[in-house]
Amino acid sequence: MTDTTGFYDLVVNGERRQVRDSWVGESLLYVLRERLGLMGSKGACEQGECGSCTVLLDDEAVCSCLVLGASAVGSDVVTIEGLAPHGAPTDVQLAFVEHGAVQCGFCTPGLVVAVHHLLERNPDPSAIETREALSGNICRCTGYGRIFAAVETVVALRKGAGK
Amino acid sequence: MKNSSTTTRSQSREVLGTSALRPDGVAKTQGDFAFSSDFQAENMLWGATLRSPHPHARIVSIDPTDAWRIPGVETIIFADDVPGQATYGLIASDQPVFAQNVVRYMGEPIAAVAADHPETCRRALAAIKIVYEELPVLFDMDLAIDPSTPPIHPDGNVFRHQRIISGDPDIVGDVIVEGTYDIGMQDQAFLGLEAALAYPDPGGAGVELVVATQWLHEDRKQIADCLGMAPEKVRLVLGGVGGAFGAREDISLQVHTCLLALRTGRPVKVQYSREESFFGHVHRHPGRIHLRHHADRNGKLLKVEGWMKLDGGAYASTSSAVLLNGITHLQGPYACDNSRLEAWATRTNNPPCGAMRGFGVVQACFAHEGQMDKLAVALGLSPVEVRLRNAMKTGDKLFTGQVVDSVAPVARCIRETDAIPLPAEPAYGTGSLELPGGSGRTSDPSHIRRGIGWGVSIKNLMYSEGFDDSAEARCTLADGVATLKFATAEVGQGFVVLAQQIARTILGVDTVVLDAIDTQIGSAGSTSASRQTWMSGGAVDGACRLVRERLFEQVAHVHNLNPLQLAVEGTDIVDTLGPLRVPVSEASKGLRIEETFLHRHRPTEELDENGQGNCHVAFAFVAHRAVVDVDTELGLVKVVQIATAQDVGQVLNPLTLLGQIEGGIAQGLGLAVMEEIVVDRGVVKNPSFTDYLLPTALDAPDVVAIPIEEYEPLAPLGAKGVGEPPCISVTPAIVAAIRNATGRDITRTPVRPQDICLPT
User: Fold this and answer.
1) pLDDT at B547 (0 to 100)
2) What would the 3-class secondary structure string for B749-760 be?
């Protein structure tokens, strides 16, 4: 794979990271996982249907399988690993665990990023707004009920904390 | 907020009966949990599989010359490179590792390549030249059953033919209803795609495989046979499993990955794309069922007669077991003495079908519940009343002659579901996102009609027909810490938290360490058939009890007591006849007690030629009531509410139980209104998440669930398996609700818009 290799820098989770010897056709998802070792973003459909690979690109939630790695040069990329330090979960991550929103967990990183993104923009979403915002993230295990419960809890906790 | 359980939780111990939290939860939310696709190795190669574009063809020639010329390609392997057995299979070994002269389904593997980059693999596959001679495609079940049709495989075109005849098969009822029902092919659609990483031993003497599977030891046996190795030379480690639902019971990439690693002497990783996943694993059997129900004037069932045909596709997988489940559950959860039933599982050039949550019972239930509704109409009874009049009880005999000795609260499931309040009447504004059709906003409130429908089911638990089923677990207690070892595949269901709860409860410890899940201990059997709580739960329970006995002996010896008078209370060992109270942590200081336990369920039998025999272990029951809103002009359906009461035995973890119920309902909803692999003469038309539709957050109904908690004396923990029942009768309930809303006699699932607004 030496015919069309790329050398570029990406800013991921606030750090400048070098991408070397990368084929330019590689998706941002592939570059994050296989070049930079950030395995938290998951690939499950390669067509932007399932949301498992959701990351923030300049504060927008995007499917990293649909973004070329090389096209993310100059943008701020935040992955699931960038939301909170290892072992110190965010309120959203904790609520997911405590409300049973995690089963197999494959969709979970993408959903957690999507929920953070939703609550940044809309701190008090209605039930239908939550459903609409998360409808790009497929979960096959939970049937979504516990995910909604986790989101409701975070909204209430943040309100209680005066945020 | 409904659920402020954090504080209460920190005050109580996470023993059986509590909503203990899963130990892998935080890691999964932070992206730290390693799924099988997340493993990497030094010097690793990527592998990929070449698959047939045709459903039935002769392979005239294969020319890999151009592929070998591509820089980065390390090896290409074909059928001749399989050193051991050329075929594999869960029940019959009839599926080639690589097709040799003929391909029998679209997507059948022909070759595999290992290279430095996934893209190199793709180019290499594209460069392999294969000349095919297309053959006539056998796609019809009736043609497969017809003995004059030429066999497409040396083993013939019928995987199994079974009949059941019981009581007086010639009895005629006062009321007779008849129907034919079609079920589409559903995909398990787990999110975590097939992935594995194989490490060859030096000199190729053995291999280690990190893989997402439901049954490590069965994989190992089949892999070892194909590699021509002793099973102990093949070591399997469970990579994190991103859902399973039956699709990981069969071999997919396991043998290919090991072969590539052994051939190159380097670690090899194979990871399917979503499209390849649709071709790489088995699906739920599509089928056609015809039933005729006889009842007396009071609505009492007199006889069920008819037939069932399930299409197993090109290879056997578990078709014969799925068919057994199907035919033995055509009775439904209803008492009835007389039957005449016949069933076939066919081989065709359609995609292979096998295990999926519900395993033959989903298909049977769709038909028998359609029939119960027809019976209700014919008798002028409500759907609830006709089911209550026939509800099975403990002690009733099945068509197979087997007596149901499980707890069987069928009537209670129906009554408690019926008592759940119905949702508010629809009040849609124009353009509302909540309208049927959702964000498309094409639905018009004036066209919406509401419907209510029912479904009730019976599901067998564990494997059937004489299968020698067992699960092994080991418990080690040292210095107040319990360590558990088992080969039970955690696929998301939460066995890892249940195992910890069991050890905390039995041993009075708080810290329970889970050892790696691999083949370094005896088999736990498959994570399927709603069996692990019963089987591996029983094994963990047994191992912990053996350890506790030995701990009691130690404590009794020190304090000069009879060990029989000791008990665990919270985290203490107490003398039930005296004042002694010593913390388990203290009593186990400096000790290391280790015990292994093998749990077996009671034996079962094969059915005889008339379908008689005690073929199942135990049963669970559930009722579902669905409320739907249908736009009758556009054929759009919104499932508003699912009410359910499920027979679960003892509740061991309310939170994971609710997760199984809500998740199963979503999958049953998918089969009811959207999920279908569309196959046209053997060609799969929609192998992607763009074209195969799955329920999203906007499709999720409100679920109101009541666990019917009646201790099951047959089960080691008093608990029934809860994984499959939620997805079984919800599908017929939703379809019945659509019939109720539209007045249409819909006989197929999934229900498509044209079935509602353009009926034939």
Assistant:
1) 98
2) ECCCHHHHHCCC
| Token representation of residue B357 | 């949550």
The pLDDT score that the predictor gives to residue B441 is 64
Quote the CA–CA distance of B28 and B35 in Å, as a whole number.
10
Task: List the structure tokens of B42.
Answer: 């030094």
Contacts of B439 in chain A (CB under 8 A): 132, 135
C-beta separation of B215 from B238 below 8 A: no
C-beta atoms of B689 and A135 within 8 A: no
Pick the CATH number of B470-600 from 3.40.50.1260, 1.10.10.10, 3.30.365.10, 3.20.20.80: 3.30.365.10
Query: How many beta-carbon pairs under 8 angstroms link A with B?
Result: 205
The pLDDT tens digits for A39-89 are 999 999 999 999 999 999 999 999 999 999 999 999 999 999 999 999 999
Closest Cα in chain B, distance from residue A62 (Å): 17
- How many CB atoms are located within 10 Å of the residue A160 CB? 9
Residue B632, Cβ density class (10 Å: 0-12 exposed, 13-18 middle, ≥19 buried) = middle
Which residues on chain B are in Cβ contact (under 8 Å) with A94?
26, 29
Residues A96, A151 share a domain: yes
Residues with Cβ within 8 Å of residue B683, at least 6 apart in sequence: B55, B106
pLDDT given at position B444: 85
For B690, the closest of A1, A49, A128 (CB atoms) is A49
Residue B481 corresponds to which tokens in the numbers above?
A: 């810490």
**In this complex, is the C-beta atom of A96 within 8 Å of any C-beta atom belonging to chain B?**
yes
Give the tens place of pLDDT for each residue, B371-419: 999 999 999 999 999 999 999 999 999 999 999 999 999 999 999 999 9
* pLDDT tens digits, B297-324: 999 999 999 999 999 999 999 999 999 9
**Tell me, what's the pLDDT at B586?**
97
Residue A53 DSSP label? T
CA gap B575, B572 in Å, rounded = 10
Quote the CA–CA distance of B367 and B330 in Å, as a whole number.
Answer: 8
* Residues A125 and A67 occupy one common structural domain: no
If you classify domain B287-394+403-464+606-757 with CATH, what class do you get?
Answer: alpha beta
B280 token code pair: 């790489």
Contact (Cβ atoms closer than 8 angstroms) between residue A27 and residue A57: no
Q: CATH number of the domain at B37-136+194-271, please?
A: 3.90.1170.50
Query: Is this complex scored with an ipTM above 0.85?
Result: yes
The three-state secondary structure class of B260 is helix
Tell me what the mean pLDDT of segment B46-73 comes to.
Answer: 98
B249 near B215, Cβ under 8 Å? yes
Residue-level length of chain B? 760
Tokens representing residue B215 in the block: 């049954």
Here the CATH number for the domain that contains residue A12 is 3.10.20.30
Distances in whole angstroms, Cα of residue B3 to Cα of each of A111, B379, B585, B757: 20, 45, 32, 42
**pLDDT reported for residue B3:** 29
pLDDT at B439: 66
Helices B730-742 and B654-673: crossing angle, nearest 10°? 50
Confidence label for B443 from pLDDT (cuts 50, 70 and 90): confident
Nearest CA in chain A to B693: A49
What are the C-alpha distances in Å from B281 to residues B51, B321, B530? Answer: 13, 17, 20
Q: How many CA atoms lie within 13 A of B298 on its CB side?
A: 5
Q: What is the mean pLDDT of chain B?
A: 96
Residue A145 is nearest to which of B9, B117, B662, comparing CB atoms?
A: B662
Residue B682 CB partners (closer than 8 Å, separation 6+): B54, B55, B56, B105, B106, B137, B139, B348, B349, B350
Residues 6+ apart with CB under 8 A from B81: B98, B259, B263
